[in-house]
């Protein structure tokens, strides 16, 4: 009897094409018509290059309805990363193909001790349509500077990933913003915004 149970336990996942022992941050949503591909240009990001690669990987690993890929043709990207000397600021999306998003990776936040990959992943979250939530815990990427400089988490949590997937689901693709707001992450408490 035990041999039959063991054999059945080995065969059932194969029959169902379900991997055993692999868990996702959250289950994949129902299939959409197509995955939205957003291209980015990091040619003006300088020393932020490694943090961009990691932040993009973190987002691509967490979401199902949108894929972030580097552009092969600078100047044609849906959004750009650039190194600046000021505060981080980003176009608040969701940005769609043909968009004109801008992520300014500001050195002032780094000078205050904030983690470069967390900054980059947080600002990328704005491109994907997530607002700031500074009162959240470190496990919440969009809590930004709220948890302090000791927070190094650069991965979105399940709720953040689910919201991004909702932003890029087939039912919402027809509803696109007509103007963009720029979120300036002054990581000292004041958060002004401006319309573009």
Automatic annotation (TrEMBL):
Asked if Disulfide bond is a keyword of the record, the answer is: yes
Its Gene Ontology molecular function terms? metalloendopeptidase activity; zinc ion binding
What's the EC number here?
Answer: 3.4.24.77
Principal place of residence: secreted
Cofactor dependence: Zn(2+)
Give the record's GO CC terms: extracellular region
Give the record's family classification: Belongs to the peptidase M7 family.
List the GO biological process terms: proteolysis
- Can you name this protein? Extracellular small neutral protease
Q: Which residues form the signal peptide?
A: 1-25
Offer one Pfam family short name for this entry: Peptidase_M7
- List the keywords (alphabetical): Disulfide bond, Hydrolase, Metal-binding, Metalloprotease, Protease, Secreted, Signal, Zinc
Q: Which reaction does it catalyse?
A: Hydrolyzes proteins with a preference for Tyr or Phe in the P1' position. Has no action on amino-acid p-nitroanilides
Write out the annotated subcellular location. Secreted
